[in-house]
């Protein structure tokens, strides 16, 4: 999955369940963070392993729960973004790296055809395979481009609502940024 989809899909989910939109928007870039393991030629291994995605954020959650309760929602949102990346990449991740160097994969497929009648099929492929050399990642796939096109289309149809939503998002982002600057 491309970084655009890793960023957009969990953000839309958090906004849909009405999580604090300021925090959801501010922490959204963390959804792409695991893909930086491609810089070390360990794409879908180092950044997709349980150590950076579960152990370290769980320590932050425990600290927030015990010492800084006001950090708890932010820590949960960060954990959600990091975990969503692995879930969306389940076509092959070395989740137990460096202990186990093979990739775990889970690839469900639903097919729909109308050839020779109405046919609906489901297949599921899962297991472990050799860690594939994936030193590069595409920034925008065809599905990501389709999501952008869908967003542009929806914005054109719902102009007034889109303008209002963008205005609110911009105001929230600038207020949050200014609050952060005032604290430092």
How is this structure best described in words?
By secondary structure, this protein is mostly helical. It has 2 domains: 3-140, no CATH class; 141-184. It has 6 helices and 2 strands, in the order ααααββαα. It has helices at 3-16, 21-27, 50-66, 72-88, 142-157, 159-183, and strands at residues 103-113, 119-129. α1 packs across α4 (72-88) and α3 (50-66) packs antiparallel against α4 (72-88). The radius of gyration is 19 Å and the shape is globular.
Instruction: State the end-to-end distance.
Output: 36 Å
Query: Any low-confidence stretches, pLDDT <50, length ≥5?
Result: none
Portion in strands: 5-15%
Strand order of the largest sheet: 1-2
By secondary-structure content and strand pairing, the structural class works out as mainly alpha
Ordered list of secondary-structure elements with their pairings:
Layout: H1 3-16, H2 21-27, H3 50-66, H4 72-88, E1 103-113, E2 119-129, H5 142-157, H6 159-183
Antiparallel strand pairs: 1-2
Helix pairs in contact: 1-4, 2-6, 3-4, 5-6
């Amino acid at each position: 999955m491309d970084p655009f989809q890793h960023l957009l899909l969990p953000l839309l989910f958090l906004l849909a369940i009405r999580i604090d939109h300021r925090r959801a928007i501010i922490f959204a870039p963390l959804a792409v963070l695991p893909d930086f393991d491609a810089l070390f030629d360990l794409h879908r291994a180092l950044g997709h392993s349980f150590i950076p995605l579960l152990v370290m954020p769980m320590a932050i959650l425990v600290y927030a729960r015990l010492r800084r309760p006001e950090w708890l929602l932010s820590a949960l949102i960060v954990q959600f973004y990091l975990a969503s990346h692995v879930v969306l990449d389940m076509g092959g991740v070395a989740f137990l790296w460096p202990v186990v160097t093979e990739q775990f994969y889970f690839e469900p497929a639903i097919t729909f055809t109308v050839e020779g009648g109405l046919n609906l099929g489901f297949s599921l492929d899962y297991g472990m395979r050799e860690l594939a050399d994936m030193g590069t990642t595409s920034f925008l796939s065809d599905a990501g481009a389709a999501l952008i096109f869908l967003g542009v289309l929806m914005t054109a149809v719902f102009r007034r609502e889109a303008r209002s939503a963008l205005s609110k998002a911009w105001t929230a982002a600038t207020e949050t940024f200014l609050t952060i600057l005032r604290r430092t």
